[in-house]
Design a protein that fits this description.
- Strands 2-3-5-6 form a four-stranded antiparallel beta sheet, with no helix packed on it.
- The protein contains twelve helices and six strands.
- The longest helix has 67 residues.
Length: 509
């Protein structure tokens, strides 16, 4: 039998490992001179859907759930309803005011007043009995005594008084105060509605960014798992070579270290994904602050990353001017402040009102009779001659509040312009980063595959293989971040223009 030299045996083992790696590597089309952007990270293996796959939660579904269940948004909705009730309160000034009252009082008379009344009654009754003529003196005296006793006992020690009153009043004129009060309340209601839209706009942005964070963490998990799979294969081959005497222990230990580093990266990515899911559950208003395992965020699809050109800044500003609820709310605040100035100026005018009342009062038990009721009609005219400068100070305060509202509206307008321009700059940068990372990922992947083949053939070092794999993992991480960055930048731009709510409403209809 012909003996095989150890050097030849090691060379054959190396070629076998190279053939094994080439056969088990992911299939990939031949790259042209200027490689196109890959559709997805090559090192990330496509996972087969399980038999009982979880329900996929899209971004649109998540945003609708947030609009329905977020507690902060519900609090703003309650403020809108409060503003509507304030409008009804202000409108009530245009209607007559009708009041009905009934009172019952019990008074214990003082001992002095009771004694005085009884003495007076006794004296009057005695004189009345003594002056009675036409009968004998004894009978006359008896009648006087009985009458005196009856008068004495008839004086009460307490008095019960009952009063009923019905009053109707109507404000004729108060210097247009109720007109401006109603206008201010209506502007406040519209401002609250605009605040609700603004809160919804910001909530949709928060949901989107958190949703993209879950997607990014999911992509990092897949990258880490692919890195683990790659290093496990190399570790298995290194062990086989070491057992055959064709490889060193340091190679085995190297891949052990690299595989555990990939597992550490996987743990970090899974933690980031869990944290992002918790944040998303809070935004959705889920009671236990936990997204059920049956609801899975959709995986990042490179085909869903927007590729269209961003709009011009003038077009985006026009959209924001027409759609941004915070700008509309600031303009309504100015109009409300102007109405409050008119409301304060009403103090310079007289207040004219008319009233009518019907009332009755009686002492003792028993119902009221028609003849006991009295009717009163009247007109009230009131005017503040001197208030120590209070009215003038209140008008001045309202004018300063109006000035503040105008400056706030201007600040809001400038902030919207800044939001638009910053969002456009971020989107342009994200698009450039995506194009760069797509090209870079293709080059790094090709380089890694070449280094693997060269390492298997014994033509390159272990350090170069480790670096090539690290570069690939880093490039794929940068690529998924760039893809998420473009999607997030597009959503931020639509948030800045105020289109997110409009888009959600259009999709619902």
């Amino acid at each position: 039998m012909r003996m095989i030299r150890p050097q030849r045996l090691g060379r054959l083992a190396g070629w076998a490992v190279c053939l094994l790696l080439v056969c088990t590597a992911p299939c990939r089309a031949e790259e042209p001179a200027a490689p196109p952007a890959p559709a997805c990270p090559v090192a990330v293996q496509e996972a087969q859907p399980p038999e009982n796959a979880a329900e996929v939660l899209t971004l649109e579904q998540a945003q609708r759930m947030a609009l329905e269940g977020n507690p902060s948004l519900k609090a703003v909705e309650a403020r809108v309803r409060q503003a509507a009730e304030r409008v009804r309160q202000a409108r009530s000034a245009y209607f007559p005011q009708v009041d009905a009252s009934w009172s019952a009082t019990h008074t214990d008379l003082s001992d002095l007043s009771v004694e005085t009344a009884r003495t007076t009654a006794l004296y009057s009754a005695s004189r009345s009995g003594a002056s009675t003529g036409g009968v004998s003196a004894a009978i006359s005296q008896l009648r006087g005594t009985l009458g005196a006793v009856d008068a004495y006992l008839s004086v009460p020690e307490s008095v019960d008084t009952y009063t009923v009153q019905l009053t109707a009043s109507y404000l004729l004129f108060n210097g247009f105060g109720r007109k401006y009060t109603l206008a201010a309340a209506r502007f406040g209601q519209e401002q609250s509605a605009a605040a609700l839209e603004e809160a919804s706009r910001l909530l949709l942005e928060s949901v989107a960014q958190t949703y993209y964070g879950v997607q990014l963490a999911g992509e990092n998990i897949r990258i880490a798992r692919a890195d683990i799979t790659f290093n496990e294969k190399l570790l298995k081959d290194a062990r086989a070579k070491h057992e055959a005497g064709a490889g060193s222990l340091s190679e085995v230990l190297n891949f052990e270290v690299r595989m555990r580093a990939a597992q550490a990266a996987l743990n970090s990515a899974e933690n980031a994904r869990s944290q992002a899911r918790i944040g998303l559950a809070v935004l959705l208003g889920l009671g236990d602050a936990q997204l059920p395992e049956t609801r899975e965020v959709a995986a990042l699809d490179p085909a869903d990353v927007p590729r269209e050109e961003p709009p011009a800044d003038t077009e985006a500003i026009q959209r924001a001017t027409a759609l941004r609820p915070d700008l509309r709310g600031a303009e309504l605040a100015v109009r409300q402040a102007e109405s409050l100035v008119g409301q304060r100026r009403a103090a310079y005018y007289p207040v004219v009102s008319t009233f009518a009342s019907r009332n009755a009062s009686r002492t003792g038990t028993g119902g009221f009779r028609d003849e006991e009721f009295s009717t009163t009609l009247g007109v009230n005219v009131g005017y503040d001659i001197f208030t120590g400068g209070r009215n003038r100070a209140q008008v001045a305060e309202a004018r300063h509040a109006r000035t503040e509202a105008r400056h706030t509206a201007e600040k809001t307008r400038l902030q919207i312009l800044a939001d638009i321009r910053q969002a456009l700059e971020d989107l342009q940068t994200a698009r450039k980063q995506l194009a760069l990372q797509e090209e870079n990922a293709a080059f790094v992947l090709r380089n890694r595959d070449l280094v693997v083949a060269e390492y298997a053939a014994g033509q390159t070092s272990l350090a170069l293989l480790n670096q090539a794999q690290r570069d690939l993992v880093e490039a794929e991480g940068n690529l998924v971040r760039a893809r998420v960055g473009v999607a997030a930048a597009w959503h931020s731009l639509r948030t800045a223009t105020g289109e997110t709510l409009e888009t959600l409403e259009d999709s619902a209809s």
